[in-house]
Amino acid sequence: MEQSHIRNFSIIAHIDHGKSTLADRILEHCRAVTKREMEDQILDNMDLERERGITIKARAVSLEYDAADGERYHFNLIDTPGHVDFNYEVSRSLSACEGAVLIVDAAQGIEAQTLANTYLASDAGLEILPVINKIDLISADPDRVKREIEDVIGIPAMDAPCISAKNDINIDEVLERIVSDFPSPKGDSSAPLRALIFDSQYDPYRGVIVYMRIKDGSIGKGDRIRIMSTGAEYDVVECGHMHPLELAPCDRLFAGDVGYFTASIKAVNETPSGDTVTAAARPASEPLPGFRQAQPMVFSGLYTADGSKYPDLRDALDKLKLNDASLTYEPETSVALGYGFRCGFLGLLHMEVILERLDREYNLDLITTAPSVIYRVHLVSGEEKYIDNPLEYPDPNELDYAEEPFVRAEILVPQEFVGNIMELCRDRRGVFKNMTYLDETRVDLHYELPLNEIIYDFFDALKSRTKGYASLDYEFLEYRRSELVKLSILLNGDLVDALSFIVHADKAYPRARRITEKLKENIPRQLFEIPVQAAIGSKVIARETVKALRKDVLAKCYGGDITRKKKLLEKQREGKKKMRSLGTVDVPQEAFMAVLKFDED
Amino acid sequence: MFFFRKNGKRLEKLNTRRYVPHYQKDEPIGIYIHVPFCVQKCPYCDFYSVATGDFDAAPLYDDYTNAVITGLAETASINSSLRVDTIYFGGGTPTLLGGERLSSILKYVRKCFDVDPRAEVTLEANPGTLRESDAMLLVKSGFNRISIGVQSFSNLELSRLGRIHSAETAAQAIKLAKRAGFSNISIDLMYGTPGQSMTTWGKTLTLAAAAGVQHISLYSLTIEEGTPYGIVTPPNIPDDDQAADMYLNAVKYLESNGFRQYEISNFSLPGRECRHNLKYWRCQEYLGYGPGAHSYYKDARYSYIRDLAAYIDAMKTGSEGLIDGDPEIIRPRERVGEYLMLGLRLREGISEADYKRKHARDFGPIRAALLPYVKTGHVREEDGRFSLTPEGFLISNRIISDVLDAAREEGTRS
Questions:
Q1: Minimal Cβ distance to B301: which of A557, A559, A562
Q2: What is the pTM of this model?
Q3: How confident is the model at residue A388 (pLDDT cuts 50, 70, 90)?
Q4: Contact B294 A549 (CB under 8 A)
Q5: Calpha distance B414→B412 (Å, rounded)
Q6: Residue A276 pairs with which residues in a beta bridge?
Q7: Is A410 within 8 Å of A439 (Cβ atoms)?
Q8: From the candidate CATH numbers 3.40.190.10, 3.40.50.2300, 3.30.70.2570, 3.90.1150.10, the one assigned to the domain spanning A485-596
Q9: B141-151 confidence digits (pLDDT tens)
Q10: Residue B412 CB neighbour total at 10 angstroms
Q11: Chain B positions in Cβ-Cβ contact with residue A527 (cut-off 8 Å)
Q12: Rounded to whole angstroms, how far apart are CA atoms A233 and A226?
C-alpha cells in the first residue's frame, strides 16, 4: 500500500461523548464487520470496559475504505483510553497517528478531557478534525459547540461534520474528511527500522502481541529486532495487520503502516508502550522521542480476606501483570493482615479496575489498605527517601521535613457550581491558579492540589457537588514541602498497622475523629468493650468505644420452624468467617472499606 | 423423588405431595395445626396468615377446616396408630375459626391418631377474638391449655404494635379463660417494642405475674425482612442494651414470682412447661397441618406452602406441590448440630453424657468452646450439664455459633 493511501488516526473525546460508538460505525461503513458480527462497541473487548463504558487499553484496527474519489484507502484506527489515569498511554497512541477525530457532544460541549486530549493530540503534532456528535438530541446545539471549539481550543470548527454515531447520521462525511484532512504518513522504508510500540497484549499461545506504528524502515517475519530501551533482541515470528475480528498476517510491514508482531516475548513489560523497536542488524541511531516508564502514582496494600489465599493473589497479579505493564507489586507483610502485596497503580481508576478484575476474574475476596501517594521525606541524617507505605514513614525525631506530590488540575464546571467547587478544593488544600470562562455558562478552573487529597474520592465529591456536570483532568506537577503526620489506629490498645495513613497535620484531628467514628459503626460488638483510638506517635487524639455485646439472640423459636433458625445462624457464622482477627478483635472487611471512604459525608 | 430411610436403607418411595409418615419412633409425637387467619396483620409479624377482618370469611374458614381434615385423614389412611401426646393450634389467630370448627378439627385429630388421654391440647388466642361461649365449648371438647397473645399491658404500646385489643381486653380475656375452665393459661409478652420503657415494661411484668397464669413467654421484638416494620422501622425502639436490661429484669422478676425459666423465652410454674414446644427444642417429632405449617418427622424437616388458596386446592384435588421447597433430610451430623443449637436454648442445656450416648462424639471440643463463656458468666456448668445463664441466653447466637464451629471441626476430624 502506497503511503499516500494510508491514514492513521485516533478518536479522542471526553468520556461518554460517543467515541466507541463512532468507532463501531466506522467499522461498519468500512464493511470490516457485518452487523451480525458487530457486538456493541467492538473495540472495547474487556467486559469491564463495556460495563463502565470506558476504554482501558488501547486497541487498533486496520480498515479498507473506498472513498468518493474512487480510490481505496487503508485506515488504521487506533483507539485510546479515555481517562486521566492513562494519559501517558493516550499520548503514545496519539504518537502513532497523523490525525485525531475530536468528538464533542452537541449538547454538553467541551469537557475537561476534551481539552486534555486535544492538548495531547496537538502536542503530538496531529491534525485535528472536530466532529459534533449526538446532533439528534433535543438539547443539541451544534452551532454553540462549534463556536466553543473555535473560542476555547482555537481550531476551525464551522465546517465540522455534525453526526449521530448512535443513529448512523453523516458518518460518510467523517470518513471523507479523514481522507481529505489528515495527512498521509511520511516515512522512509529504506531507513533503519524505527517502530513505536503503543500497546501490547499477552496471548497465552503466541506470547506478547506488540502493536506498533512503523515510522521508518520495515519489519518482517524472521527479522531479528531489538527493543531500544532494554537492548533485548527477539526473532519476529509473525507480523501483520489487526482486523476487527482476527489478526491478518503478512510478509512485511513498511514505514507508515500500523500493525503487530509476535516474537515469543513472555510478558508485556518487556515491550513497554512508547519504546522503539529497531532492527538488530541495522539499528537506528536514536530512539523515537517521548519514551518513559509508566510511573505508578497511587499505592495500596492488597490482602486476601482469607489469609490462606495469598498464593492465589500472587498468581492473579502475575497474570494481570502479563497484560498490564503499569501495574507494580511487591510482597509486604502486615502484622494485622498477614501476607499481601504493595501494589502501585497509575491512579485510582486503574486501582479500581485491577481490584474489580481480581474480584471478578480471579474470585478473590480482598482487603485493601488506604491508598497512599509517594512522599519524599528528608531525614535529619541528610538522607532523602521516597515512601509509598505509611508503615515506612519515619519517626518524627528522624524526620527533617517531608514533601508530597502536587498535581495540576483542570476542572470544567457550569458557572452555578463554581462556589461549590472552590469550597471543595479549598477543603482539599487546593491552591487556586486561575479561572476562565469558556462561554457565558461554563468555567474552566485551574487548581494545584495535593495528589493525596484527590486519590480517595475527589471525583465522586466533584460529581455530587455539581449534579454530575463537572469534569476533571490532572497531571503531576511537582513535590512540595508539607506538614504531614502519620496517623495510627489502635484497636483494644493494639496498633493496627494496616489502618495507618499519612495525613496533613491540619486535617489530622477531624480525620482521626471521623475514622474512629466509622470504625465504631463498622466493628460489630464483641464480648468485651473495645476502645478505638487514633494517635499521632504516642499521643491519642481521638477515641471511641465499641460497647460490649449484650444481645444477639433469635428470640422466637416456636411453630417448629427449625430450618429457618439454622439458616439464620449459618448466615451469621458466614459473616463471622469474613472477619479478620486483629489481635483480640474481629474486624469485618467493611471496616477497612469505611476507612477508605471516610470523606463521603 | 423423596425417600424415607431407616438404618441407611431406603424404605419406601413417597409421593412428595403426600408426605405421609408410615413409621414411628418409640416416642409419641406432637401435632401442630397452623390456622392462618388474622383480623389484621400485625406490622412486625412474619408468620403466615391472611387478614380476614374485611369480609365474611366463613366459607373460607370452612374450606380451610375441610382441607386440614383431609390432610389428617390422609395420614391416618397410611398409619392409623401414630401415638400423639401434644396438640397445638397456632397461628395466625386460631380463635377466629370459632369453637365449632376448632372442635371438629380436634375431634378429627383424635380420630386419626392414637391420642394420649392426658395429652396437652393448646390453643393460641388473640384477646380481641376470644368469646366466652367459644371458650366453654373448647374446654368441653378437650382443649386444656390456652396461650393468649397479650403482648403488653400498656395501651400505648399495644396500639403502636398494631394490636387489635387493649390492655383491659387482655386482662378480661385471661379472666374469661379461667371462667371457661382453662386451668393452664399462658400469656405472650413482648419487650423492645416501640415506645417501651423500663417503667412500662415493669408494669406489664407486674400485672402478668399477678394475673394468675401458669406460663409466660417473653419475645423480643425482631424486625423481620418483608414485614411492614422491616420496610419502615418505627421510631423509639429500645436499643440492644435497653432490651437486654428489660430481659434480665424480667427473668429476675419472674423467677422471684415462681416462674422458672426453662427456655430462652419461656417461663412457667413448676410442671407447667409447654410440652409441645419442648418437643421442638428436644429434637422430637411433630407433624404440622395447614399452610405454612412445619413438620419434623423421621429425619426430615419440611413445611407446607405459605399459600392458603393453593393449600386448600391441593387438598381438594390431590394435586402436587404441597411441600414448600424440598424436605431437608437431617443426617447424623446435622442432628448433632440441632441437638446443640436447640439444647442450648433450654435451661436444662446439654450434657456430655447425652452427647456421647445419642451422638457418639467426643465432647472435648464442645467443652473447650464453652469454657471461655463459663469464665465470663454466660454459661454455667453443673452436674455435667452446660447451660446458658440469662446473660448467656442474650448472646446465645454467638455462643451457639462457637459451639457449632467446634462440633463441625470435630466432625471433620473423625
A1: A562
A2: 0.64
A3: confident
A4: no
A5: 6
A6: A196
A7: no
A8: 3.30.70.2570
A9: 999 999 999 99
A10: 8
A11: 376, 395, 398
A12: 4
